[in-house]
Amino acid sequence: MASLTEIIKIIARHRITVKRATRVDVVIIHSQGAQDFAHSLKTYTSMIIDPLPNMQSISLHPAVIFRFILNRARGMSLQTSYLASLIMQIKPQLVVTRVHNSKPFQSLDRAVTNVPFLALQNGTLAIDLDFPRDTWTIYHSHLACIGKYEIDQYTKHGAEVENFHVVGSLKLDQYLNLNQSKQHQTIYDICLVSDYGPDEHPEQLCKYLAQYSRENKSHLVVAGRTEETNDVKAEEHWFRNQLGENITFVARTSDEFASYQTISNSKVVVAWCSSMLRESLALHKPILAFNPTGYKRYNFPVPGKWALEDSLYSQFSERMDWLLSLNTENFEPIFGDLRRYLIANSDDIKTKLSLKSLVTELITN
What we know:
This protein is an alpha/beta fold and 365 residues long. The chain is built from 14 helices and 16 strands. The protein has a six-stranded parallel β-sheet, covered by helices on one side. Helix 2 packs across helix 3 (78-90).
């Protein structure tokens, strides 16, 4: 239970308003990814509310304070009590988020029962490690997910999801809509999708790829991950140190869909644990998920020929030879069922249209 002192400290760090909150049709929780709802919410009014610590202002309107006290008395957390009281004043017809793994959003979804909530999946979840069963029970009244895999994953984990909506990857759908009539030229043999971050990247994967590329004179490209200019420079420097100066590095900042275009221009896609492996399947690209770390959280969602854990270089090399030998006719018998299970875009589902239809249905009903 937060003390009065803690509450005062939180209030003191934020801009205060005593105005009644504006009524809107849709509230978006988290500014991260909020722009992805632009098409679906075009005909509705909306506002963005960021939970702590990114909250822009705090309302001390009497009605908000009164409901906040009532919510605290009902056992809600400090943040959930405040956000719920604000939602009650705004009276939206729908609350959405792009951050589907947000605990503040899930808590709010569980607390406010008279408004529909919709979470749009933004990546593959390492569900057992990110949400251990003994510490958190995932809750969604409506979850718009990438593929059928999430239904099995969440159900097996014991998550409480009232309604699954399989809509596919929104970003991939946008790319496909822009490039549906375009012929993609094969430029690269192997595309390594970067998982570069605070823990950098498994050096063993880079070591194997560097050796394989040298031995087979393969054209290797790295699809970058970072978005800030300084981070991009550090990322490119790191990969060139690992893979050699002859690689091609395509920065994510070069184009909104740079990674998808790079994948489309490649024969085979390799990654450590990126969710873009699933999207590569929808682009009809053979994949290899290679996790040499020993941590299960980085394993590919479905085991098979397309996934390797810690292995000898000879095994890695043989698998790469096999993948590079595949042609268009080979792809469907090997990867067809997998791609249809993992990503709805493989079933020609139009994510943008499906999402807009879902939003309209939730608002009008």
